[in-house]
Amino acid sequence: MKQQLLRNFLDSRTEPVCAYVYDLAHLRRRAERLRQALPPQCSLFYAIKANSDAPILQALLHRTDGFEVASLGEVERVRAIDRSVPIIFGGPGKTDAELEGALQQQVMLIHIESEHQLRRLDWIARRRHQVADVLLRVNPAQLPQDAKATLRMGGEATQFGIDQAQIPAMIELALSLPGIRLKGLHLHAISNNLDAQTHLAVLTHYLTLAETWQQRYQLQFEWLNVGGGIGVNYGVDHAEPQAQFDWERFCNGLAALIATHRPGYKMIFECGRFITADCGYYLAEVTDVKTTHGKHFAILRGGSHHFRLPVSWQHDHPFTVLAREAWPYPFARPAVQDAPITLCGELCTPKDTLARDAHVARLRAGDCVAFLLAGAYGWHISHHDFLSHPHPERVYLDG
Ligand SMILES: *Cc1c(COP(=O)(O)O)cnc(C)c1O
């Protein structure tokens, strides 16, 4: 199915191929499935920084409960496809103009990352004769032991959120400001977590924190935003499909957790990677194959200026080879057979390496490689104009 989709695309092109291909039908099905599995007290938002292309947002518009953004530019991207879909607005560096713009664009919630940000929002909202609905972003004092394996934004010193020790004072301040309505808390402290049990342990901790403060201040929060951070396994064992985060198991555990804690508030998930990674492929044609110092290298029409993810994460990205038979030259085709090969881009830097020593049955100049799981944090985190090569095609297949 997946192979067929890419094959059809490839057969429609004659120039050296360099393209992002997104499968919108798959994306819609995936979002629906993820959302339906969640307990009814939970909303699924899409964190658009993972991939903010209009066709992606359009596909997710009625298949998620809304969008999480972290700049006014992102607010505008969402508003360009829908005037009223719920938006939640985070980020440690919101300027006055962004806070003002967010109020003007009627965002549903603003996540507050510091005392200064809270005071500025109150000041701006009052001037506009508005009241801003906010969640306080908490940097928890600690996280469960298991959560240490993942990338972390909290449970240690970071630029994100408000130190747990300062939350009581911040709750009191928020309650005293006429331009602010406190709706609950926001916790997004881990990223790329692959284990459902670990995620449940982290959420249990979040629920406990929320309960403590609700009791202490006789509050009833309306929302607890438990963040995103559900991971994608980019492992490269080609023999077997990689084990991905077990969403069904997680949702069952979450239902049990909700039954025990009986929180009066609703929960928000704001996932990026887990929603869109699997719907995108980055295709690059092999323009050359060579051997130096006993190692095989394939050079691609493309590279990290289009797809920075493997370099950024320092991993070898999974890919599949799409053979192409056309060969226009009257001389032999450089090829490697049944051997490890390193896939490099067209940039003049040794950092432009997307997979190292990956075993291939055969790879020839003129073949194409398709990097998998490239739908999130691919094109959108890359330095497109470094070395001034042409940009990849960006193709959104549907149906
Ligand atoms: C980036 C981000 C997300 C999404 O993270 P994923 O790992 O893509 O799920 C969610 N919430 C906040 C606050 C973020 O910064």
TrEMBL record:
<protein>
    <submittedName>
        <fullName>Type III PLP-dependent enzyme</fullName>
    </submittedName>
</protein>
<comment type="similarity">
    <text>Belongs to the Orn/Lys/Arg decarboxylase class-II family.</text>
</comment>
<dbReference type="InterPro" id="IPR029066">
    <property type="entry name" value="PLP-binding_barrel"/>
</dbReference>
<dbReference type="InterPro" id="IPR022644">
    <property type="entry name" value="De-COase2_N"/>
</dbReference>
<dbReference type="InterPro" id="IPR000183">
    <property type="entry name" value="Orn/DAP/Arg_de-COase"/>
</dbReference>
<dbReference type="Pfam" id="PF02784">
    <property type="entry name" value="Orn_Arg_deC_N"/>
</dbReference>
<dbReference type="InterPro" id="IPR022643">
    <property type="entry name" value="De-COase2_C"/>
</dbReference>
<feature type="domain" description="Orn/DAP/Arg decarboxylase 2 N-terminal">
    <location>
        <begin position="24"/>
        <end position="277"/>
    </location>
</feature>
<dbReference type="Pfam" id="PF00278">
    <property type="entry name" value="Orn_DAP_Arg_deC"/>
</dbReference>
<dbReference type="InterPro" id="IPR022653">
    <property type="entry name" value="De-COase2_pyr-phos_BS"/>
</dbReference>
<keyword id="KW-0663">Pyridoxal phosphate</keyword>
<feature type="domain" description="Orn/DAP/Arg decarboxylase 2 C-terminal">
    <location>
        <begin position="20"/>
        <end position="375"/>
    </location>
</feature>
<dbReference type="InterPro" id="IPR009006">
    <property type="entry name" value="Ala_racemase/Decarboxylase_C"/>
</dbReference>
<keyword id="KW-0456">Lyase</keyword>
